[in-house]
């Protein structure tokens, strides 16, 4: 596995991923989450036994890439933020932008399986969480699928980073090399999520800074079998 490298205010921070986790059904309003679970159940997506969820994913799926190979046309990204534990101290916890690329056909058979079928794409730059912690709810998440805006919201819509730090600590996972993705915000239903490219931005309205990740989706050859 290649280490991830982040530009943190001009400093290059390198992280070898030892644990990768995806949050799911992670809206701040769990009442809204319950309604969403019911909607997905009607589409055939199995309901979780509890919310929010936490899905372990193979560490090698944490990538900084410009291309995501896929096996079919029904895969798509999700706008998310990610926590990256880069060292032993509080100041070593980084916040970056991420896109969880998910196999939607597999999702109806098991959400955990669908998470394992695609990478978690992370941005090349990050902020130290302590530097933005006082305004984290003001940070914005925006995503474009094939050039059309499909997601737009703030981190106030999702469970806060501290929730997940506490969860990692409780599970003895809050150690260098841990990466956790936040779960996502609603998608605009009129935009086709099965696009040939995805771009996600994490913005700080106070500083004007924007972290981004973007990639194209490349269909692989059909199996020879």
Unreliable segments of 5+ consecutive residues: none
Overall shape: it is globular
Number of helices: 5
Largest sheet: 8 strands, mixed
The CATH topology comes to Fumarylacetoacetate hydrolase, domain 2
Mean of pLDDT: 93
Instruction: Assign the CATH architecture.
Output: Alpha-Beta Complex
Number of domains: 1
- Work out the oligomeric state of the chains in this entry: single chain
Cα distance spanning the termini:
29 Å
Give a quick precis of the structure.
The chain is built from five helices and 17 strands. It is an alpha+beta fold. Strand 13 (140-145) and strand 14 form a beta hairpin.
Word description of this protein:
With 225 residues, the protein is of the alpha+beta class. 16% of the residues lie in helices and 38% in strands. The chain contains five helices and 17 strands. Strands 3, 4, 5, 8, 9, 11, 12 and 15 form an eight-stranded mixed beta sheet that branches. The chain has a five-stranded mixed beta sheet with strand order 6-17-16-13-14, with no helix packed on it. The longest helix is centred in the N-terminal third of the chain and has 13 residues, at 30-42. The radius of gyration is 17 Å and the shape is globular. The mean pLDDT is 93.
């Amino acid at each position: 596995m290649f280490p991830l490298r982040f530009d943190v205010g001009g400093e290059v921070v390198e992280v070898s991923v030892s644990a990768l986790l995806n949050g799911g059904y992670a809206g701040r309003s769990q009442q809204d989450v319950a309604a969403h679970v019911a909607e997905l159940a009607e589409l055939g997506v199995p309901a979780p036994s509890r919310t929010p969820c936490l899905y372990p994913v193979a560490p090698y799926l944490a990538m900084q890439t410009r291309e995501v190979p896929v096996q079919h046309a029904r895969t798509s990204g999700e706008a998310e933020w990610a926590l990256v534990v880069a060292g032993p101290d509080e100041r070593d916890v980084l916040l970056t932008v991420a896109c969880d690329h998910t196999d939607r056909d597999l999702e109806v058979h098991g959400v955990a399986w669908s998470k394992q079928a695609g990478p978690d794409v992370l941005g090349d730059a990050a902020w130290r969480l302590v530097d933005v912690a006082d305004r984290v709810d003001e940070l914005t998440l925006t995503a474009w699928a094939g050039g059309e805006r499909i997601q737009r919201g703030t981190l106030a819509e999702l469970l806060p980073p501290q929730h997940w730090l506490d969860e990692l600590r409780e599970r003895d996972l809050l150690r260098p090399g841990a990466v956790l993705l936040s779960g996502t915000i609603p998608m605009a239903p009129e935009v086709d999520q099965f696009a040939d490219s995805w771009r996600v931005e994490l913005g700080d309205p106070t500083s004007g800074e924007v972290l981004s990740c973007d990639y194209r989706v490349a269909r692989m050859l059909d199996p020879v079998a």
